[in-house]
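Protocol step 4 of 5: obtain the predicted structure for the target chain.
Materials: sequence only (see below). No template structures provided, no constraints applied. The aim of this step is simply to have a reference model before the mutagenesis design in step 5. Sequence pasted as it appears in the construct record:
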Amino acid sequence: MVKFQSERKFAKVFDFHSYARDVRPNYGECGTLPSTISQYFRSIGQVIANSISYALGVSCCMGGDIHVAFQGQGSLAYLLETGTAFQPTAPVMRQELVRVWPGTLYFLGLPIAVQGHVYNAATRAPIEAAFTIRGVTFAYGERWTSHPVTGRYHLWLPTGSWTVDISASRFVTRTVVLSINQFGIKEDIFLNPQ
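Step 4 output (structure tokens):
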């Protein structure tokens, strides 16, 4: 899963498990995120939970694919603990699928807060670059990069103004201020070679 996520750099990850009937955002109870980021993910999770009459929960541990998805790729990631049994009968499973469908559609339809591509300003070729969000301190070496082949990137940040440094080997680091709204923004970044 780590390799798959690293190769694809998914903007969103929705992992279905059984059972508990709750929605669990990015990190487990022993993990910490900056409060602004944590509240942002919890508020999205609460909307998903409300739409399917589930509770908003938290994972009991760290190291699963939703945790790795956020830590390594910056993915918006949730674990959906479905149903009331590990091995439900086929009719019960189908009922649960119908129940969770509205939350799944909501999640898939969420606009990405910030997305775009990173390009070499001289050649317009896509490049892999790292993103650092100023004023936000993460605890687990969270590091997000654009895709090395396409230059595509995504960031999940609450609405407001965010200062972000974009750096790449053999390029001049660039600082941008992103003004994020509820509809998400698209921002292509051009880095000058050194």
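Step 4 remarks: The CA atoms of residues 73 and 144 lie 5 Å apart. Residues 2-109 form one domain.
Proceed to step 5.
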